[in-house]
Amino acid sequence: MREIELREISRAVKELSIEANTVANDDLRCALKASIEKEESPAGKAVLNQLLKNQDIAKTEKIPICQDTGFAVVFLEIGIDVRLIGRSLEEAVNQGVRDGYTEGFLRKSILKDPLTQPVNTKDNTPAIIHTAIVPGNGVRITMMPKGGGSENMSRIEMLKPSDGVEGIKDFVLETVRTAGGNPCPPIIVGVGVGGTFDYVAFLAKKSLLRKIGERNADPELAAMEVSWLEEVNKLGIGPAGLGGRVTAMDLFLEVFPRHIATLPVAVNIQCNAARVKTRVL
């Protein structure tokens, strides 16, 4: 049994909070560069070039890629052979977010008491925490700062089983079409299918943890991802919603067994910043 102090998790979350918001991943930069080659619209090309320049400035100056530094969404995979030492895992994660967003001078956007007395928590807590127990003796921490603009454009629908694959695809395309330029394209589209009302939304968000170009392990689902991505890019929304060939850089599909009477579908849209950072303890 391996012991890990919760303060180590706090420290990792703090560092990931800052890094995710200021340093773009290599797969995202490669996707943007590839998008410049594909894009035919002069305005679209200009937007994509500006996004790359913005990422360079953010990394060099250690400032946020986007001013909306998001809700702190944290995914934890905890090995079954790990013993966590300390009082509260949830508080350890929130302390890391608190320290990272304060010391990193990141914008705090979270309001407590959203209906009665909406007041800023002033430290971007609490985080949204997803926890899984997995084989092994380590802890894998993934930080996804999720901006409000892209999150606002996400949707869920309880389709009828008879709607089938075509009904799901139509819902995905309509969701992106309705979103237009609001989620700051070029976007990444996360699609979840199956499970329950709550779980299908988790699937859609979890899919966004993949690297751009990383296909579903199921060949049929992988083929759907490629095909639906092509359909999304035929919508002509383009970078920043100014029109063009590149509306989305990728589309990910995650599925889970469903009830015979249900067909839940969720679409979670990620903006062009696509901030995801991971560390293993």
Give a quick precis of the structure.
The chain has 281 residues and is of the alpha/beta class.
Largest sheet: 4 strands, mixed
Number of domains: 2
Strand percent estimate? 15-25%
Radius of gyration: 19 Å
Query: Average pLDDT, to the nearest integer?
Result: 97
Q: Output the number of helix runs.
A: 8
Please describe what this structure looks like.
The chain is α/β, with parallel strands linked by helices. It folds into 2 domains: about 1-20 and about 65-145, no CATH class; about 150-275, no CATH class. Helix content is about 40%, strand content about 25%. The protein contains 8 helices and 12 strands. It has helices at about 5-20, 25-40, 40-60, 90-105, 150, 165-180, 195-205, 220-235, and strands at about 1-5, 70-80, 80-85, 110, 120, 130-135, 140-145, 155-160, 185-195, 250-255, 265-270, 275-280. Strands 6-2-7-12 form a 4-stranded mixed sheet. The longest helix is centred in the first third of the chain and has 20 residues, at about 40-60. The protein starts with a strand and ends with a strand. About 40% of the residues are buried. The model has no long low-confidence stretch (mean pLDDT about 95).
